[in-house]
Amino acid sequence: MKNKAQKKSFFCKLLLSASCWLLISFFSATYVFASEISAVNVKLLNNELLITTSVSPDPKFIESMNEGMSKEFVFYIDLFRVWKIWPDEFVIGKKLVKILKSDPIKREYVATSFEGNTYLEKRFKNVESMLGWAMNIAEIKLTNVRELETGTYFVKVTVESTIRRLPPVIGYLFFFVPEKEFSISKNSPTLQINTK
Predict the structure, then answer these.
(1) Average pLDDT of the residues of the chain
(2) 173-183 tens-digit pLDDT
(3) Are the CB atoms for 106 and 124 separated by under 8 Å?
């Protein structure tokens, strides 16, 4: 009898702590950072399409990083072909993942970047320099224009910030808790590519 009471008490404590954790996660995830993509610049150099873009985080976001929050950003850089009658056609894309870890007590600021099979880790002296590196993409090679057909194209950049993933069982029960902190996108001006 005593054993059943202990199991019941343990289960109640576990359920209560899981509920509290979920409520905290839910309310902390409801604030959407007012980040924006400043510009999407496309440059053609030696038949290569080079993309330059940057994300401007708001002060609240910088404050949360100074408090020790870790963030994961996914950059999608996609090339679309414009059609007059049909919807725009996806041609090629790249995905970059950047993970930012901040420990203000140890004064450690580490950023990692994944692009295909390329892994890069950098350490910084402060949050501002880490964000400056992570939020700016300079002249990333998207494709060679010789592989494209003649037409009108544009580049779409989408940036998503994911929040901590819930444990699998709790994730199924609380499906209404959002997985993304924010998702923003911006298109470049259209460009004519003539491969003839």
Answers:
(1) 77
(2) 555 555 666 78
(3) no
- Model confidence at 153, pLDDT cuts 50, 70, 90, reads very high
Q: Which residue has the tokens 């930012």?
A: 100
- Split into its structural domains, the chain has a count of 2
Q: 59 and 6 in one domain?
A: no
Cα–Cα dist 75/135, whole Å: 10
Q: What is the number of other CB atoms lying within 10 angstroms of the CB of residue 177?
A: 16
Q: Are residues 2 and 44 in the same domain?
A: no
> Taking 90 as the threshold, does the pLDDT of residue 32 lie above it?
no
Name the residue range of residue 107's domain: 33-193
Cα–Cα distances (Å) from 87 to 76, 84, 90, 99, 147, in that order, read 19, 8, 9, 34, 21
Do 113 and 131 sit in the same domain of this protein? yes
pLDDT given for residue 176 in this prediction: 54
Task: Look at residue 11 in the predicted model and tell me its pLDDT.
Answer: 52
Whether residues 9 and 86 fall in one domain = no
- Write down the pTM of the prediction: 0.72
Whether the CA torsion 126, 73, 172, 34 is positive or negative: it is positive
79 within 8 A of 153, measured Cβ to Cβ: yes
Both 87 and 16 in one domain: the answer is: no
